[in-house]
Amino acid sequence: MTTAVSSDQRTGRSLISGDVFASIVAFVVHHEKRDLETAERITDQALAFVATAAESTLPMVPSDDVDMGLHAFILHTREYREFCQQYAGRFLDHNARPGTPRKVEDVTASAHAIKAAGFVVFDGLWSVNGENAAQCDSDCGRPYGAS
User: Fold this and answer.
1) Residue 76 pairs with which residues in a beta bridge?
2) Which of 23, 106, 143, 147 holds its CA 20 to 30 A away from the CA of 121?
């Protein structure tokens, strides 16, 4: 007897239209000098970050890479505002704190919150100054325990 395993994980990319996703990705490619595949993953994680932050009770802190996608999304002002209204019921302000370094434990907690919210987490994008902060299980998007 074979048991089927289904993944209930969702992607950040599934939360917006393909055109908007492509526009944010293009911004990351052009302004952040990332290759297309990396820019797509960064954008996906930024969208999952905002959707999770909309309902999270803990402070959410993006990784260095995810912050690039977050800024690119925020610069798509109309789409960002509509996304916030849909997922948070209000506009989510960006609380930049220049000169305040990200703490690995805060970024780790955010990556875990995103995974707990049912999103795919790409561990390689969750780092602070080169130190891995995701520590989920190096799953590259697979659910825990899946091979």
Assistant:
1) none
2) 23
